[in-house]
Amino acid sequence: MIAMRKEIDVCLTPELVHLSDLKDKLVVVVDIFRATSCMVSGLASGVESITPVATVEECLSYREQGHICAGERGGKKIPEFDIGNSPFEYMDDQMRGRNIAVSTTNGTLAIKKSTDAAQIIIGSFLNLSAIADYVLSSEMDVVIHCAGWKGTFNLEDTTFAGALIDRVSDKYQFKTDASLMALSLWQLANSDLYQFLLKSAHAERLKKFGIEEDLKFCSELDHFNIVPILNGKKITVS
Amino acid sequence: MIAMRKEIDVCLTPELVHLSDLKDKLVVVVDIFRATSCMVSGLASGVESITPVATVEECLSYREQGHICAGERGGKKIPEFDIGNSPFEYMDDQMRGRNIAVSTTNGTLAIKKSTDAAQIIIGSFLNLSAIADYVLSSEMDVVIHCAGWKGTFNLEDTTFAGALIDRVSDKYQFKTDASLMALSLWQLANSDLYQFLLKSAHAERLKKFGIEEDLKFCSELDHFNIVPILNGKKITVS
């Protein structure tokens, strides 16, 4: 009997997730600029847990339980919050051992819309190899859920999907053309990922806020060897 | 005063079209395998008009008015219909001067979902240069509306979007990353378009029906120098 290869698929934006059946699947959520890069950076640097929430009000309600409030709207820090959406803020010594509640434009929505999945893990270029190893050791079909930009496709999240597919493609078959396209983008990007991602519309928007260092850091591979997992409402590293 | 460059955008599937404001825009609808390739082939070969309709029943009701019924579901000819979804059927001598009503899985939906546009034109590789010239002479912003596959992204329609953007990019700025990605696909595809498109999931599905000749023909550039335009319910060549 020939073993069936597992399937991998890419959901290009949360706006298309109703077309993917996430039940029994392993979902990798990705929002490179910058939500999931922040989560990985923080959890790898001693943050205790990260709770994604939909609204500013919900986030502030966690402060009463001792949480740090983090997040952005349209790329900018929310005035009432403690920190914005930079991986360097998440790696600050003062965040060690703290619980963070976070609300962002796109990334937290992608997590919220993935809850039918068997398991949700948090991907970024910063923990690419750890995610690839985790996927390879899983018995589940996989969907890479790109946060995109306000419902539309974005370059950086799909390029990450291509990078991950490139690492695991021997053990997975592609379910749709989105995987093939993502892999094509990665092939064009991988010789100079940062320069490739700088072409994206979102990088262009974010450059106006003077955060090139954030963009550069989020484009680096394998700084951290962790796999953040959503358990209930919290993302932690097991 | 610096003239503002017009904008071009790609809607990757009809499922995302609510995120594009089509008002006052020129929309290029594309369904390479095979609806729009058929329409272009037929109209360039003497078909009088093509009326896209949503359902089999609506299509059959046009037969009472003397129309040819054309279309497919899941890539296969609908049994009660006169012809299926092959460009060679549309180019048959018996179609000269005839009006065709057509219902297909994805292409006719993309047309129906574009009706907010100022103008809808029908694109394919077979009339790429004619479409590019038309776009260049237009004063409108442009959205390339890819029919996709049952709501999801597909390779062939987005690669066409990239080919068209490549021809007109001097005069247009990209609205979102979808344009950049489409252009990347075209750069990978253009040295051997047919081989590139054969990798697509839809080509894989269609090969099972033994229609490689259709796929090959639909991957050829500039067979026809026409721009089909939707006028009311009918697509015609002015």
Question: How would you characterize the overall build of this protein?
Answer:
Two copies of one chain form a homodimer. With 238 residues, chain A is α/β, with parallel strands linked by helices. Chain A has a domain at 6-35 and 105-237: ComB-like (putative 2-phosphosulfolactate phosphatase). Chain A has ten helices and eleven strands. Chain A has a five-stranded parallel beta sheet with strand order 7-2-8-1-9. In chain A, strands 3-6-4-5 form a four-stranded mixed beta sheet.
Radius of gyration of chain A: 17 Å
Taken from the alpha-carbon principal axes, the silhouette of chain A is: globular
Question: What fraction of the residues of chain A are assigned to beta strands by DSSP?
Answer: 15-25%
Low-confidence stretches of chain A: none
Q: Report the strand count of chain A.
A: 11
Fraction of residues in helix of chain A: 25-40%
Q: Largest sheet of chain A, described in full?
A: 5 strands, parallel
Distance between the termini of chain A: 36 Å
* Interface with most residues: A-B, 28 and 28 residues
CATH architecture assignment of the domain at 6-35 and 105-237 in chain A: Alpha-Beta Complex
Oligomer: homodimer
Mean pLDDT of chain A: 94
Count of alpha and pi helical runs of chain A: 10
What class do helices, strands and sheet pairing of chain A give?
alpha/beta
Helices and strands of chain A, in order, run as EEHEHEEHEHEHEHEHHHHEE
